[in-house]
Amino acid sequence: MRMTSIAGLVMVSAAATVAMVSTATADSASDRAAISDGLGKLSSNASALAAAAKKSEDRAVRKKFAPKAEELSDDLASLAKRAGKDVALASIGKEAADIGRDAAALIELADEAEDKDERKSLRAQAVLIEQGLGNVRKLIDAAASKGDDKPAAPKRFTGRLVNSTDKCEWIDHVVFTLSRDGAQVFKSTLVPPGKQQPLVLDAGDYAISIGDTAGTIYKSATFKVSREGWVWDTGCYER
Predict the structure, then answer these.
(1) How confident is the model at residue 150, as a pLDDT?
(2) 183: exposed, middle or buried (C-beta count within 10 Å: 0-12, 13-18, 19+)?
């Protein structure tokens, strides 16, 4: 089964992405969003190209081209997430340049296809992805040149940690300890049963444990802060 119909859909999508990233002129408040969105769309294009290549009758396309297209998609998706967070634009630009070399290599891998039409189709799509990435890199350079290469301030939400052990068999005074990315970000004093600890946190995922002042852990869990008024409740547990 050749890739003609699937390839055509991918080419239309990739071409639209090239147009999108070449005309975007985001102001300083939306630079990162525009860059992240452009990289995300290119990742989707590379993913669709990889999926199509996996269905090719050509073994070289399936075994050589498809994995590299999939790897390119993963790298673009990862960079899209980093661009929207707290990574300096200079670093984003360097990573985009590295990925650009991989995109160029993918173009050359298209020549592994034996069928002429398939070879032309793969090459054309890989070229569109490389061009789209080149235009995103221009956005990155333009944003960095403004001298406003400070990470976007994270969203912060006020919530509370609740010690609800007053409703349980084990009634404890507890210490709440929160960590993020392996680093401790908060540790409370002893919170009595039925009481709560107000807290302001950056949006994101956290690991939490409750225990005593001697370091004994009664319960561990994970939770996500994504809105104002978040609540994490101890619930009941067994020691």
Answers:
(1) 57
(2) exposed
